[in-house]
Design a protein that fits this description.
The protein has 2 domains: 2-116, Rossmann fold, CATH 3.40.50.2300; 122-229, Arc Repressor Mutant, subunit A (Orthogonal Bundle). It contains 9 helices and 12 strands. The protein has helices at 10-22, 33-42, 59-68, 84-93, 105-116, 118-126, 160-171, 179-186, 196-209, and strands at residues 2-6, 26-30, 47-51, 75-79, 97-100, 134-137, 140-143, 148-151, 154-157, 176-178, 219-222, 226-229. A 5-stranded parallel sheet has the order 2-1-3-4-5, with helices on both faces. A hairpin with a 3-residue loop joins strand 11 (219-222) and strand 12. It is elongated.
Length: 235
């Protein structure tokens, strides 16, 4: 497995490369965002370790560019800004996990290995007896294990964070789910944060699921609480 490490602090990048290779992986280093995009266009990687603060193009922009190019390589974002708002900004950009600097090396390696097994872990954690691997919502077929949504001939790749949120809402169909619960139980964020970031995820899910996203029938707003998922009966 080949890992791309995108980090402009040379001593940290080389230290990460050494330890990743000690785990049995191949590793390459890019020192700025533009170099990372060039390498990603020319090579296939199993995962990307991506710093936020980079020259030329920051980590958020690198992640967004990858996803816009339909590159769904798992991303572990490294950030010195550990505020929940920054973590959610990373999730919105398409990252799959984050680690705040400074971090313990063993935790870094555990997160990286977990990310490489993310689909199996996602199946174990997010797919319950109430949410099978493949579900149908409003004529859309959703493969939660492979993070794909198909609507006729259109195929949409879900981010891990979108899929986790959708799986949680499906599991709790008919019940109001608060923003606080979404932060804590879906994304493992324990601190209070600006929950408008969650609203942005809901907007994206509505675009995927609703016939009229501005008049949602499936992912409903519960005023003063959060959201409720309602799966209409098949016609």
């Amino acid at each position: 497995m080949k890992i791309l490490i995108v980090e402009d602090e040379e001593h940290l990048a080389e230290g990460l490369k050494f330890n990743v290779e000690a785990e049995g992986f191949e590793a390459e280093v890019a020192g700025d965002g533009e170099a990372a995009i060039e390498r990603l266009a020319a090579n296939t990687y199993e995962a990307v370790v991506l710093d936020v603060m980079l020259p030329k193009m920051d980590g958020f922009e690198v992640a967004r560019t990858m996803r816009e190019r339909a590159d769904y390589t798992p991303i572990l974002m490294l950030t010195a800004r550990g505020r929940p708002e920054d973590v959610l900004q990373g999730f919105e950009a398409g990252t799959d996990d984050y680690l705040a600097k400074p971090f313990d090396l063993e935790i870094f390696l555990a997160r990286l290995n977990g990310l490489l097994r993310r689909r199996r872990w996602f199946q174990q954690e997010a797919v319950t007896p109430e949410t099978s691997n493949v579900v149908t919502v409003n004529g859309r077929t959703i493969d939660l294990e492979n993070l794909e949504l198909r609507n006729g001939d259109e195929l949409v790749h879900l981010t891990l964070m979108e899929a986790k949120l959708l799986a949680y809402l499906i599991e709790h169909e008919g019940r109001a789910v608060s923003r606080k619960v979404i932060l804590e139980e879906v994304w493992n964020l324990q601190e209070d944060t600006d929950t408008r970031a969650i609203d942005n995820f809901i907007v994206r899910l509505r675009k995927h699921l609703e016939n009229r996203p501005n008049d949602p029938k499936i992912v409903q707003t519960v005023r003063g609480v959060g959201y409720r998922f309602v799966n209409p009966p098949s016609e």
